[in-house]
Amino acid sequence: MADLFSIAGKTALVTGGSRGIGAMIATGYVEAGAKVYVSSRNADACAEMARSLSEMGECVALPANLSTEAGCAALASTLAGCEDRLDVLVNNAGNTWGAPLEEFDDAAWDRVLSLNVKGVFHTTKFLRPLLEAAATAEDPARVINIGSIDGLRTPTTENYSYSASKAAVHMVTRHMAKRLAGEHITVNAIAPGPFESKMMAFALQDPSSRAAIEQSVPLGRIGRPDDAAGLTIFLASRAGAYLTGTVIPLDGGITGCA
After folding, report:
1. Which CATH number covers residue 103?
2. One-character DSSP codes across the chain
3. Active site residue 29
């Protein structure tokens, strides 16, 4: 039982790991004893995050642009040059877009869907050999996709491509979970509610807006870093080995208590 929630010694890749929820997860993994690779399109931010986390454990920067299939393939190839196996893949890299309905054009769709949906799919596809190398029946390799409660409910903001992309992430999660279960790779998704992040900054920086958001959460607060780290550590540990194809709301009760 002492090792039930341990991820010590595991190797993980967290995409979009230089800020927001990705940084929260990467920090939690490093503190829990995992070797963590963080990826981000911004090479400087990626290197700074790796440098900071290396003060408490093992963390390596792998900058990449995951909005293209070639970028996903390049990331997988670079990681394969460093590791012969990958225990945990956290597909967190994502983008958002907000605009009134009449102004929502192709760019608003292409930019978001390319990263949020195709990036998740292609990154997992290309890293499958490393995940298979780590996978056993007793301790499967893990893929954790970061969705959103905006993919579970109708959003309050006009972020049409974002909400659609996150709903797609949830379905891709279920679909890939069924396909990869026989290879001892679990695939689950987390659907976060409000957390401190660049995507939420526009709403959380204003005190009145922040208060309104907090009041909308049944538990009465914004998500904290240990909330994000705790659930992803659970999914990556022995405790989460028998879950696959799930989409878990991490939202303080917003969707569950509606």
Report:
1. 3.40.50.720
2. -TTTT--TT-EEEEETTTSHHHHHHHHHHHHTT-EEEEE-S-HHHHHHHHHHHTTTS-EEE----TTSHHHHHHHHHHHHTT-S--SEEEE---------GGG--HHHHHHHHIIIIIHHHHHHHHHHHHHHHH--SSS-EEEEEE--GGGTS--SS--HHHHHHHHHHHHHHHHHHHHHGGGTEEEEEEEE-SBSSTTTHHHHSSHHHHHHHHHHSTT-S-B-HHHHHHHHHHHHSGGGTT--S-EEEESTTTTTT-
3. no
